[in-house]
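Q: I'm writing up a methods section and want to include an example of the input and output format. Could you take the sequence below and give the corresponding predicted structure tokens, formatted cleanly so I can copy it straight into the document?
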Amino acid sequence: MEIKMLKKKNPAPKEEKTFSDARKELISSIDAIARRGGISRDKAITAWYATTLLGIDEDEAIVSASVDGAEDAGCDFIYIDHDQEIVYVLQGYVSDRPERSASQKKWNALIASISNIQDPISFQHSGRHDIFEQLTEIDPTNYAKVFGLVTLAGKSDQIARQRETTERANTYGKDVSFLYEHQDTLYEKHLVAKAADRNVPEDEIIFNSDVVQIRDGFGSAVVGAVKASELARLHTKHGNRLFEGNVRLFIGERKGGINEKIIETASSRPDTPRVP
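A: Here is the clean output for your methods example:
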């Protein structure tokens, strides 16, 4: 009798998405917007960012990223959110190689655009009547301003330091804030945004107090106290889906106000207990 020894096959290792795959996924999404809007990659990334992470309608984002021309004054993207009373001004950059980071000139151009936003007459003088009209339709003192450099490129430590310094200096007023995104932070937030599709569509929760129901043009909300044991029960049942697209996405969705302070605390004091 011939006996054959069969080796047990090890299960194939679970494939993990590599950095290269992640970059390709982002470029594919950005290029889709570029083709649809007939705009460059550098402008398309700002529209993608606005749509994916700021919750702006894609059509409106593409229009806002179409302020093309030599006289856009460092503004690849201008969008006025009248509901939130925020003016978004973004500069975009997609590097041809993943290890290449944005140059300091990109950040300098963004900073230079601040004076043009505060006094938009320069846009009219340069023939950009469309931008001028957008900015003169509002009372700028009632609107917060967010200036951001959004890049699918390596991190620039120099730009990161410049952003922190500019933010702390408060040179441009309390209603002005700054953001800098590079490929690592972009993909991380992209994953959080995708996770919004995996939230908990329906369940029951027991409140530990009276509840208040709020309804307005933005939707409805129920506010009340919940015991930690109740949250633990729901987390045991649903896992991290309980928070997907809700707590974590909400914290990172908007700049300004309480969200910005939560992010600031989480970054500067990581040991401080807080809701996951």
